Amino acid sequence: MTTRTEDIVNLYQQYVMPTYAPALVLTRGRGTKVWDADGKVYLDFSSGIAVTNLGHGHPRVLAAMREQAEQLVHVSNLHYNRPQALLARKLSILTDGGKSFFCNSGAEANEALIKLARLRGHATGRFEIVCMRNSFHGRTLATMAATGQERIREGFDPVMPGFVYAEFNDLESVRRAVTERTGAILLEAVQGEGGVQVATTEFMRGVRALCDERDLLMFCDEVQCGMGRTGKWFGFQHAGVAPDAFSLAKSLGGGYAIGAVVAQPALANVMEPGKHASTFGGSPLACATALAVIETIAQEKLVERAASAGARFKQALEKHADRFERIRDVRGLGLMIGLEADRPVKELADILTDMGLITVGGKGNVIRFLPPLTVRDNEIDEALEMIDDALTEWHGLKIDEEETGNATS
Ligand SMILES: Cc1ncc(COP(=O)(O)O)c(C=O)c1O
Fold this sequence. Notes:
By secondary structure, the chain is α/β, with parallel strands linked by helices.
């Protein structure tokens, strides 16, 4: 059996399309910890990019998956299945009455949002969607066009028409982008890939009011910031607003692929049989898994946990901004935290990985910390120690171990 790191990397180089530049060969996970092929242990503060929000191998989720897999894995949407009905009801309860469409990924969920907007605006020619600069909505042709970052679209011309861009957190810019062709405004309550940029309450409320005033749809992409990560079930709840529809994926299945769009009933009902579909979407296995994820988040009070653990973690990180001159900012909500430096952070991220802390990069010299919502206090303390040591090394300083742990040059 091929188990050595080198063998696996070689197989990738030969047989896997080089769309990624993977770092570690990971073989096993439990809770916040993952192990590589050489047996080295890491704290996973990436959660597979905000996916494994309950950590790795949560017993309750595993049990639900096992039980459902033995009963029925897939039936297609030509037939009803119980877990899909139960999951849709659960999402509706969480969101004051929404109706769901199920798919398999974030991009696919956003595609469904885009199709909803086009269908609703079809008769009046309102097909355009105002998106935010610095946003990220996926890599399919439509979601790439919705994404407000040119580098994502480079080489894939012609870009799908129907998307215009406004400045995030600048209501006047959004207002200027709205025309008689506009059908919807799409935004993230916290831009994740864009470098953990948090929407202001004023901005979110302003967008909601603008949508009401001009009869536009407000869409939120909750693919990364949803499902409790920010310390509320959904990121838009921080501003006390409700969108007309929003997308979910990533952590919805806790590691198993599932995406969803949840729309207010009047909007949801513009869809009719034959207008949209996904063969795998809403399979019994995916939905039973997501149901177990949601029930676990509620039972273990993980939304509250994300808020309190995140506040403690962020406060400790903020002290680094004063102590280390290359750190410009620490920001975020709950357990979605970004540390911004004044230069590229690849080297810092590599030092952290070597020390045993897995993180994710973000646009604009940002390291994202996205630990599972189940992260323990002692794991946060361990991570903070590694971050302190890594920042010290990255700044070319030495740790004064005998004294207070303060860095000296
Ligand atoms: C906010 C947001 N939307 C959409 C996506 C795309 O999701 P997926 O990779 O599952 O297609 C991502 C992925 O990072 C995301 O962060």
